[in-house]
């Protein structure tokens, strides 16, 4: 099975003491109650930065541009991701959002965005590599 290319976006606030995560609800493909960064698949005719900006807006309501996204230079490899309909193999390219516009808003029963204190991340049920990505991104900025 060929891995599916996906992207993730890391957004900080309050002097990088908080990060924006999304909690996966009943309608999400991810396991209910798990947390991840705003993330998703790269659609046809879309580059990774375009996908990152789109997913950020879809899952959180925040808007950014390709120029405001910094690639996190780390190869997370191929991840086996457990989902409600089985296991998915994916690659994950992560971007750090330098600036954004708008207000965080929830979008139905699929995902709910939440600002989370980085010092408390280990208390959350995180998708694979989220904690590592947040720590690496914090070092970059």
Output the keywords:
single chain, 141 residues, alpha+beta, Nucleoside Triphosphate Pyrophosphohydrolase, 8-stranded mixed β-sheet, 8 strands, 35% strand, globular
CATH architecture: Alpha-Beta Complex
Mean pLDDT: 95
CATH superfamily: Nucleoside Triphosphate Pyrophosphohydrolase
What is the rounded distance between the termini? Answer: 36 Å
- Specify the number of helices: 2
What is the CATH third-level topology name?
Nucleoside Triphosphate Pyrophosphohydrolase
Helical residue percent band: 10-25%
Overall number of domains: 1
The number of distinct β-strands equals: 8
Judged by helices, strands and strand pairing, the structural class is: alpha+beta
The percentage of residues in β strands lies in 35-45%
- Bulk shape: globular
- In the CATH hierarchy, what is the class? Alpha Beta
Q: Which regions are unreliable across 5 or more consecutive residues at pLDDT < 50?
A: none
Rg (CA only):
14 Å
Oligomer: single chain
The biggest beta sheet reads: 8 strands, mixed
């Amino acid at each position: 099975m060929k891995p599916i290319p996906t992207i993730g976006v890391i957004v900080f606030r309050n002097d990088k003491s908080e990060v924006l995560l999304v909690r996966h609800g009943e309608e999400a493909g991810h396991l209910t109650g798990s947390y991840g960064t705003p993330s998703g698949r790269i659609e046809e005719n879309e580059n990774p930065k375009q996908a990152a900006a789109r997913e950020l807006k879809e899952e959180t309501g925040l808007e950014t541009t390709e120029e405001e996204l910094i690639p996190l230079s780390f190869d997370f490899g191929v991840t086996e991701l457990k989902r409600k309909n089985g296991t998915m193999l994916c690659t994950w390219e992560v971007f750090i959002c330098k600036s954004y516009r708008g207000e965080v808003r929830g979008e139905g029963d699929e995902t709910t965005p939440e600002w989370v204190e980085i010092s408390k991340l280990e208390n959350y049920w995180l998708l694979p590599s989220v904690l590592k990505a947040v720590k690496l991104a914090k070092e970059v900025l």
